[in-house]
Amino acid sequence: MTGRLAFVESPVQLLNVLEWAHADALGRPRPLATVPPRPARGGTVAGGPREDGTPAGGAARHGTPDEGDLADPAPRPSSLAHAGLHVVVLAPTDPMSRGQLRRMAQLARDEGVTVTWQDARLGKGAVVRTLGELAGPLRAAERVIVGDPFSRYVQLLLTLYGPRRVTVVDDGTATMEYAAQLARGERLVRWHRRGSLGPRELALAPVTSLARRKLAPGRHRTVEIFTSLPVEAPPGTTVTANDFAWTRAAFGPPRLTRGADLVGTSLVETGVVDPDEYLRAVTVLARTHGATRYFAHRRESTDKLHRVATETGLEVVRPDLPLELIARRGPIGRTVVSFPSTVVHTLPLALAGTGVKVAVCEIAPEWIRRSASPRARGFLAGVAGSAPLTERLEFG
Question: What pLDDT score was predicted for residue 63?
């Protein structure tokens, strides 16, 4: 199969692949920056969610229109139908991500995009089977699009074949770290990881090293970073702006509610922020801004979300699509408050012209756990401080 082959493992990655295809089909905007290469030198949670994202204790609360309202009232010509795009979903195992991915996959199919679902992590022999099935399409693709350059699965796939054209789209704040590590010539390691390499990382070190070369520009390879984040182009790469034009064209504008909404984060789950400090911050923010709803991150644990609901009185909403689409479809608060995360960069773009104000609450030093990566504090401050279209809040 020729054309564009995308590997995605999260709903946000798939959304940003659609945004890339939309920009490409309509005439890609002028790149933000191109740097020449260096000279060569050698619902309120009552229980665990089911696979479709519905809490075990009852019906999911999404705060969005019903399933039947997903389509636009009038037919809308798709900019993606002739994009020559084939998306391969390397499905994760957690139910919330799978549920959102299935909704996003259907949206992509409705736009005329070919989507293949691979249960790449389920059952004995799944990895070998998936690698065998994807080797051919990967070798035939003229461009490969990846949503997470840190993914061991993607890195393993790229060892099979080094594509001549690579595009990296956003998957949270990972894009910022990928660009920085690529520029510094470092190995690819997620920003919240701490300490030396463990046995698994040591075993996969040769794969990671080879994949880094396949994800870097070279004599026979171009690399594009398609992002809504403030990324400085590493030598030899092109950075292209993602302004969420497809999302704005396909959905909304939303109906606005009187109050504010809070956006949850998985910083507790990744071991960066202390859970008690996090709950205290959510309580204060909800009281200060008159918030009534808490949009949960898909990786937030059921126990933590139960605490949010019972200790703060907020209605916990488990979105069934990425928050950019949920907010654009509405209803959404006139103020959206978030901790440092990708949404403080993406929501202002998706909600441009709607009158919604997005505010970011920075992470106080005392919230960060002692076991967190030494880079965590500076990285989170950079995420918050580099969002030009958001209001910065001081916690108090």
Answer: 40
